[in-house]
Amino acid sequence: MPFFAILITFCLFLSPALAAVDELSTARKGAESPEIAERTYDLEGQKAEWILGTSILGNPDLDFRSAGIGGPTRRLPSKLAGIFTFPLEYDETQLSMYGENGVMKEDFARGIPVDTPETHILWERYSFNGNSFGLDFRRLLLDSIELDIGWASYSNDSSKVFRYQDVTHQPFFALGRDSSQIPFTGRNVQMNTTHFKPAIAWYFPKGTAVASMSYLVVENDDIPPYSYTQDTTDYSSVTYLRNPLNTELRSFTYGIRGSFHPIKPLEIYASIYSGEHEIHYDSLPDLVKSIQDTLDEDGKTIQDTTWYGVTDALKYETINGEGGIALKLPLNPALRMQYEFTELNSRYKQDRELYYLELKDELAFLEFRVQAGALRNSNIFDSVEVAKMTSAYATLHLPYHLDLKGTVRNDVRFPDVDELKVYNRARYAYPNKDLKEEERVRMTGDFEWNPGGIFYGVGLRYEYADNPIKQRWVTGEGLESIETASQWINLDYAEVLDWYVAAGISIGNWQLYLEREQSLAKENRPIDVTDLYYKGYIRWSDKFVKNRLGVSVAFNFTWFGNRYDLQVTEDEETEKEVLEVVELKHYLALNFEARMRILTFSLYTRIDNLNHSLYEPAAGYRPEGIRFLYGITWSFDN
């Protein structure tokens, strides 16, 4: 079967060297990278995250400069929703403080000031009363001072349940589709966001200084993990056990970054950013629970956490930054460090520092980078731990357009303050003060052939995690209460070996691409991770009117395999909550786009979920069946 799958992909599908289209959604930007998929919780894009193939080590995430806080996918209630970013590049071996599975690095395009003002606008209108707007503006204020403004805004008025006429689904009935797997009805969630990222850069003969700010506001509805029931005689009739809850995030970060070149091959740089991040919840499921009181160092009683009713609030105060010395010499040696100080609710403090040495170079036949260092973690209980961290990647260029690639990363994820002390009643997560750090190893190897116009690659992915941090329900235990089932615990270990294949071809105006990843062998693999996924696209493009008018049509898809999640139901007799582990069925996210471009102006239309697939991204979510949208992008000088 593996050989048969490889043969099919080799005969059918494309080169990954497809130029990225203009995109406002940060989640979609990341999904343009190989092996990374965008898991959308709502078709309007209100809540989305990245997943790295079939990896058991967690999700890729943004650098702290992008959203003003490290690990935004884990820490912010709406994950990547509403965050403005410049173009992203995935770095799978970059060492980090937060235990991400690789880092999405934002291209801030610092180097030389712009000659003339540059403006890039994106506006999008989608169904169900939604709009989004993006702005990237750069201009000189003085000869050596530049103003940059990044702005993203989303608006979707209210959470609604949508029903579709039967005629909408007639083509799918004709194809023999199972009626229960066609979303006659669905529920989107409200989102209103603004992310404003201005910066002023001063360019002087031997360096650069940049002062920047990030202001992020997200007012979003969310779906608790309660089940919904569907009438087996009328698939357009769906009953939801809980209404959406409300989340509100207000994040304000400001800081400065400077770099200095006392001599040409030497760079010294440093940065510091300070921020406040307030999260408020309303209309939460009505649960009552309190953690046992504890004593502080003076012997006074502290009521750690009490929650009841339908509201809750968190407040992070963070100080982030980095520094380093880099030399442009053979091997390009650099000594780098990153740090973060976090204070939660003015009571619990956590700080981390990462120090590492980096060597990298590009030769005629070899490209490589090696990072080695240590991560220091001081948690909220005033215990200090230090862990070794190493990573490396290399690409060996062989004859006949062949490349041999390999990566290795040995790192540690320390439990975060949330996992040690915060009970999340929105998407249930219960703290555990006895958590241990998660030690992880990821190794990859790829063999690629790319003569131009055709591409083929095959590789292996090995991952091992000691004491992986997961919720108890993944073991099938603790289902007697929400508190025990959703509590963070350390599993013993998890190990997996996956194989990956990607192939494609570009013929004339046509481009095709497909990638596939599947588990070959596994031991104690967490059940909340899929064993199989596909991703690909087919695109046609051409130019008319003396090459002034560009036209393109594209289909892209992601196929998500089965996985498991924790779902809350109600006993009809006792009306008490019942917890169960449910299997989320595989689904195909098929999207269509048509785009017309005149010089730097583009007009496009999209159809998301073209095949009316029933998305099952998480328990409780039931996105509406299909989304139509249109928009413009426009870039201009002066």
Automatic annotation (TrEMBL):
Signal peptide (UniProt feature, chain positions): 1-19
Localization terms from the record: Cell outer membrane
InterPro entries with a match to the protein in the record: Beta-barrel_TonB_sf
Keyword field contains Nucleotide-binding: no
Top-rank taxon: Bacteria
Record keywords, A-Z: Cell outer membrane, Membrane, Signal
An example Gene Ontology CC term for this record: cell outer membrane
Gene3D superfamilies for the chain: TonB-dependent receptor, beta-barrel domain (2.40.170.20)
Name of the protein described by the UniProt record: TonB-dependent receptor
Organism: Hallerella succinigenes
